[in-house]
Amino acid sequence: MVSLVTFAALLASVSQSYAQTAITVKVASTLQQIDGFGVSQAFGRAAEFRDMLSGDPQRQGLDYLFNTTTGAGLTIIRNRIGSGTTADDSILPKSPGGPTAAANYSFDDNDRGQVWFSQQAMAYGVKTIYADAWSAPGFMKTNNNENNGGYLCGTPGHSCSSGDWRQAYADFLVQYVTQLGFLNEPDYVTSYSSMQSGANEAASFIPILHDTLEKNGFGNVSLTCCDAMGWNSQRTITQGLVSAGMEQYLKYITSHMYTGDPNSVISTKLKTWQTEAADLQSRWCATWYGSGGQCEGMTWASKIHNGLANANLSAYIYWQGVEVNQFQASSYLVASDGKTLTPSGRLWAFAMWSRFVRPGAFRVSTTGSVSSTGITAFKNTDGSVVVVFLNSGGSQQSVKVSFTDFTPAAAEAFVTDNTRSVASVTSTLAGGAVTVSVPSRGMLTVKLTA
Ligand SMILES: *[C@@H]1O[C@H](CO)[C@@H](O)[C@H](O)[C@H]1NC(C)=O
Ligand SMILES: *[C@@H]1O[C@H](CO)[C@@H](O)[C@H](O)[C@H]1NC(C)=O
Ligand SMILES: *[C@@H]1O[C@H](CO)[C@@H](O)[C@H](O)[C@H]1NC(C)=O
Ligand SMILES: *[C@@H]1O[C@H](CO)[C@@H](O)[C@H](O)[C@H]1NC(C)=O
Fold this sequence. Notes:
CATH topology of the largest domain: TIM Barrel
Largest sheet: 10 strands, mixed
Oligomer: single chain
Protein name: Glycoside hydrolase family 30 protein
Shape: globular
Organism: Hypoxylon rubiginosum
CATH superfamily of the largest domain: Glycosidases
Bound molecules: 2-acetamido-2-deoxy-beta-D-glucopyranose
Keywords: Hydrolase
Structural class: alpha/beta
């Protein structure tokens, strides 16, 4: 006799394995361009990575972050421009005496390990190094301290007896090249490097910084603003910057996610980046999926998906990459006890995009939907097409993917779930369409080549 329960379970398993949905990727219908995915090793974490790990463990840590075969294949690093009072934390630790006095910049060629970390990343092909100042040096600010907020002297409403330091701060920043940011969390005052700014203060400084870069032959450096604490705060600042005509000087709008995840488009013609994200609540956890907690890989996969699919993001950067003996936190992707390395589910969440969706790719649109499943699709500069599925539901989904303006000749598929991390799985390519099985509470990425 077949019990009712068994019969229901049988029915569920039948419908599970046969439910198939169809979607179409419109390869010529391009959306935002993707610049990449990354991490920072700021505040001395780069030096710890270099000095507390050596040989194979150090290589493995770098591979987890940057290798496109065994790791996440990250393509952006975010370095801190130091503003402290010692020679290892600033190129100008002491005031030269006044804003127009000659500044004796002195770089220690170490930058708390960030020189080493940048070189290692570049050896893996990383080209995007985002240098961001958390604060101006203390002597350039209203509170005469690099910490605890304070405003840049000379910005509207913030005069100082020592003078207007805006040009001097621009000269200081020009010492750093590539993507350049001059603010970090300007809407938050804290006991470490911090400086306040709203749109008005930023708008009184951005043209000076832009002109200073041009005069020094660094017109090719991309300016960003403003790394606010959360998406809505950055939206408000961006509206002010757009009305003040600042878009002509900037290349990227940058935001963190601590007081609000990127979940809708910020109105600007500039690219938008999420530049610092982390779980600041949990102890170290490597879990892919458990209870939906803050530290879990699936949680971060959802955040990245949401940013790409709904907030027009061109980049997503986690706070830190590799940390040694910091098991009280999950604000980084790979843990080490000094000898062995443990990747987290968060690292694999990044890998499901970053390893396959390379800098310069464009997101492309899709039609059709799959139950409980988020879909993002991309066209790489080499012509390959990548489709990333994120299934938050409890049943596996079989999906047939067709294409317009593209004929796939080969497909490779990879899954991540509680038992697999970017593991190769089979897919079926027939008649110009590929059929894949997206695991429950997991991801599948399929890469197609013509
Ligand atoms: C400039 O700074 C360097 C390094 O701190 C120091 O050795 C040198 O004497 C300074 N030069 C001047 C002119 O102050
Ligand atoms: C990535 O890892 C593979 C496999 O271990 C290795 O052969 C390759 O050299 C690594 N790539 C880089 C750039 O180090
Ligand atoms: C910008 O141009 C300068 C001077 O030609 C060069 O040294 C620097 O590497 C360039 N920077 C970028 C980000 O291309
Ligand atoms: C998305 O960002 C790009 C810049 O990267 C911009 O041109 C485009 O208008 C934005 N799309 C939407 C829907 O706002």
